[in-house]
Design a protein that fits this description.
Length: 887
């Protein structure tokens, strides 16, 4: 019963399947088929076709191509005994249509694998295929860059692509087809015909000919009328034909044609204007060059005379006028120089003069100048010189200096807070070696839209916010042109409100040290015997450094440690030059200078007084000038600047010639003293191995900077470190104590002195924290956090000084016997050094402490006097030691 029912159910399932099911015997005769297939062949009962070959049945409803493919599939299934699945399109000639089918032909096998027949299943996939085809067509239409729509013969739009919506400014296809259809075009076309009538006529012509092209006026949703090129193409569509319209917007083309016509009509006028501009440019360049030279001559005279102008008989207002003349004159000369360079570049007459020069020396000079400018604006200035950068290079040092100075002064000018950083390195790029100069600032930055105009002539940006900044707008164009003339590159990165980075790449050409030019300014002034110089400073370390520098010029200076002593000594002796420290306890340098000028004798009005100060801020020279001082020498002392001061302010009769200069060594490497002492000149090229190599560089102490500040005098540097450990151990506590008793001035002075001495020694971390404390104390207070940092840095430095190689303590206790032979030998070497005031005597003090130790107090006096540069007294003490030895 169950089997009989199962057969009935299966028969019912096959009879009502929507798919075509055919069962064929091995010869291809039909054994069974579904009702769907009977309907295809218009047969009412399966018995009407049972036993007929499928070839005869297929030929009654399908085309020849389908019949041939069916034969091939039947044979392949029998031969391979495997099923075959394929998709085919069947044309039905009698019905005038075609449909798509998915056909599966499978073998029917008996128990031993013999083919008993073939089962054919045909699934009608026409609707799915058409849906996929329409989707593919939709994707292609929407990706077409032209506006495309589908129309009937009466020009009614049935569908459109996405570009059509964009062209006409419509948000959706529904809006375009339902609402905007009648507003596609203005009522009339340029021919005078109504748009609707002409559109229908064009569509019918396209249906007749297959293609029609014409120009047309369309209208957007906003009402804008625009010209378009329309192409109508006839296409087959189901039971008939339709029209596809392609529309190209002609507005860009019309605009280009209009511009072309305008350009053509003005070509002659432009040619005339170009020739006139060339003539005018040549005339302008000649005029500006001539005027720049002509004006510079009297301007240089004005500057020179204003510098020599006597100021002691002027009141404050008159001195202010004079300073304004100097400042404005210098600014005008800079403008004239820029104009002259600009005209040379325009005329193609800017010539390079390459020489072998010391890049490190150039770097130091630039850093020294720019640090003053930066600190004047309360900016931090940092810099470094890469270890892989050669010291001697070949190039135009004047133009390289001009390029870097322009970029640095610009960075400082447009940076209101933060820092300016300058770095020199070497890089391998594009198969070449380059010098890389990087100037980075935290200034106002440059807007992105202004970057393309950055190097335009006379261009300045943010004029409203920067109107207080002077300038012609020529600095950067000149800089760019100079870099290009030197076959270099100039790159800029900037973020508005955060800062800028200017990077200059110049070809790196190593120089020859033997060909480095020694400038006349490097010759050291030699003072005559008997030249009297007084150095006033309340800090023993600063005094020792100043005396060591002056001794190299043949000057045995006298010292005073406060204003009262200095005033007393000035009354007693006629000094040829006085160096006066600014900040001292009691009577400071300004008050001391005023009192000297107020003394009744005329000689006190003429006596040169040079200010010494670690405050290299803008306006300090005016403050010193108002106090009656003649010049200003920043601390730490720079040997070149000191040389210039001596050359200018020592009486001519006291200068006997030039001392032998050791600033340029035999190998052509200049001593990098310029700019030293303000921040570590990192990664300097290593020099010959000397005893200085004992001192290692650390974050707390950079011995190379300290040695550079005292021209490489190792023994003096060792002594200064020892003195610092003795004299400044309690500085942090002194500042705290001064603040506790409300004496902010004393606290400020202690921090200032500590900053100066730290910079002199190369203790950059302590110098920076002391500077921070000094700046806060200048405002009347100092935070505990700032004092804690200073104290920590001071203790770290003291600990490092304590472990520095070469430090020697006092002789050990116990009974000691004088070795007379060693003592006489040491005295023989020491006496001539003391007699001529040679600082090399310092190098013998460690030996003196041991050899003369049995002499007790006399030994201590000798060492102290030598270390305090009291060489005359030390010679007398040495005589007492020798006399005591003979007793």
């Amino acid at each position: 019963m169950r089997t009989r029912n199962m057969g009935k159910y299966m028969e019912l399932l096959l009879a009502n399947s929507p798919d075509v099911i055919i069962m064929l015997d091995p010869e291809g005769r039909l054994q069974y088929c579904s009702s769907t297939f009977l309907r295809y062949i218009n047969v009412g009962d399966v018995k009407g076709v049972q036993g007929l070959n499928f070839r005869k049945i297929y030929s009654s409803f399908a085309d020849e191509a389908f019949l041939m493919a069916a034969k091939a599939r039947f044979s392949a299934v029998k031969e391979t005994r495997t099923a075959i699945v394929c998709n085919v399109e069947i044309n039905f000639p009698g019905r005038g249509e075609s449909r798509f089918y998915s056909i599966q032909s499978a073998p029917m096998l008996d128990g031993v694998g013999n083919v008993e027949g073939v089962l054919v299943l045909m699934h009608d996939s026409t609707e799915l295929e058409r849906a996929e085809a329409e989707e593919r067509m939709r994707v292609m239409l929407d990706s077409t860059p032209l506006a495309c729509n589908f129309q009937d013969q009466d020009a009614r739009i049935l569908d459109c692509n996405q570009e059509t919506l964009v062209l006409f400014g419509v948000s959706s296809k529904e809006q375009f087809l339902n609402e905007f259809f009648h507003s596609l075009s203005p009522e009339f076309q340029p021919s005078g015909r109504r748009s609707r009538e002409l559109a229908v006529e064009n569509n019918r012509r396209a249906l007749a000919s297959g293609r029609e092209e014409f120009e047309w006026l369309h209208r957007t949703l906003s009402g804008e009328i625009f010209p378009a090129e329309v192409t109508l193409v006839r296409v087959k569509w189901r039971d008939g034909y339709r029209v596809v319209s392609y529309t190209r917007d002609l507005r860009p083309l019309k605009a280009s044609e209009q511009k072309a016509r305008e350009a053509e009509s003005h070509s002659l006028e432009l040619e005339i204007q170009t020739r006139a501009a060339e003539v005018a440019s040549t005339a302008k360049s000649r005029f500006l060059a001539s005027m720049s030279h002509e004006i510079r001559t009297p301007m240089n005279a004005i500057i020179g005379m204003s510098e020599l102008f006597r100021t002691d008989n002027l009141d404050m207002v008159q001195k202010g006028f004079l300073e304004d003349i100097r400042r404005v004159s210098r600014a005008l000369v800079q403008i004239l120089n820029d104009i002259l360079d600009f005209t040379k570049i325009e005329a193609g007459k800017m010539e390079l003069i390459p020489v072998h020069f010391d890049l490190l020396e150039l770097y130091g000079n630039i850093c020294s100048m720019c640090r003053y400018m930066a600190e004047a604006g309360d900016l931090r200035f940092s810099h470094s010189y890469g270890r892989d950068v050669p010291r001697i290079v070949y190039g135009d040092d004047v133009r390289i200096r001009q390029v870097i100075t322009n970029l640095l002064t610009n960075a400082i000018k447009y940076t209101r807070k933060g820092e300016v950083d300058f770095r020199i390195s070497a890089a391998f790029r594009d198969n070449s070696l380059w010098l890389v100069f990087v100037v980075r600032d935290t200034g106002i930055g440059i807007r992105e839209e202004d970057l393309p105009k950055l190097f335009d002539d006379f261009e300045r940006f943010d004029r409203d916010s920067n109107r207080s900044l002077a300038g012609t707008g020529l600095g950067l164009p000149i800089t760019r042109n100079l870099v290009e003339i030197m076959d270099g590159r100039l790159e800029v990165e900037s973020e508005y409100g955060k800062g800028s980075v200017f990077t200059v790449y110049l070809p790196l050409v190593p120089g020859d040290p033997a060909k480095v030019t020694v400038h006349a300014s490097q010759s050291r002034v030699r003072a005559a015997a008997g030249t009297r110089v007084l150095v006033v400073d309340d800090n023993a370390i600063n005094l020792k450094v100043a005396l060591a520098y002056l001794e190299k010029h043949g000057i045995k200076a006298e010292t005073a440690m406060n204003g009262e002593d200095a005033l007393h000594m000035v009354r007693q002796k006629d000094y040829d030059l006085v160096f006066m420290d600014h900040m001292m306890p009691g009577m400071d340098g300004l008050e001391t200078a005023r009192r000297i000028r107020a003394l009744p004798d005329e000689k006190y009005a003429r006596m040169p007084i040079v200010a010494l100060s670690a405050n290299a801020l803008a306006g300090m020279d005016k403050i010193f000038g108002d106090a009656g001082m003649n010049a200003f020498l920043p601390k730490p002392i720079n040997s070149r600047q000191l040389n210039d001061v001596l050359a200018r302010w020592l009486p001519a009769a006291k200068i006997v010639g030039d001392a032998e200069s050791d600033e340029i060594a035999a190998d052509g490497h200049a001593t990098p003293d310029a700019g030293a002492g303000f921040a570590p000149l990192a990664n300097l090229p290593d020099g010959p191995v000397r005893k200085e190599a004992q001192l290692t560089e650390s974050p707390n102490l950079n011995p190379r900077v300290g040695l550079r500040n005292i021209e490489g005098d190792f023994d003096l540097y060792q002594r200064l470190l020892a003195d610092f450990a003795t004299d400044h151990t309690e500085d942090a506590q002194k500042i705290r104590a001064s603040l506790e008793r409300g004496d902010v001035a004393s606290a400020h002075r202690t921090a200032h002195t500590l900053k100066s001495v730290a910079g002199q020694l190369g203790a950059m971390r302590l110098q920076e924290s002391s500077l921070g404390a000094e700046m806060e104390l200048k405002e009347g207070s100092c935070s505990e956090e700032r004092l804690s940092v200073l104290e920590s840095d001071l203790l770290a430095l003291l600990a490092e000084i304590g472990s520095t190689p070469g430090r020697t303590g006092a002789p050990g206790d116990g009974e000691m016997t004088l070795d007379r032979k060693k003592a006489r030998d040491l005295a023989g070497r020491l006496t001539p050094l003391l007699r001529r005031g040679d600082t090399k005597a310092l190098s013998l003090m460690e030996e003196a402490r041991t050899v003369f130790a049995p002499m007790g107090g006399l030994c201590s006096w000798l060492v102290r006097e030598v270390e305090d540069f009291e060489f005359k007294r030390a010679e007398e003490t040495l005589g007492k030691i020798l006399a005591a030895m003979e007793e």
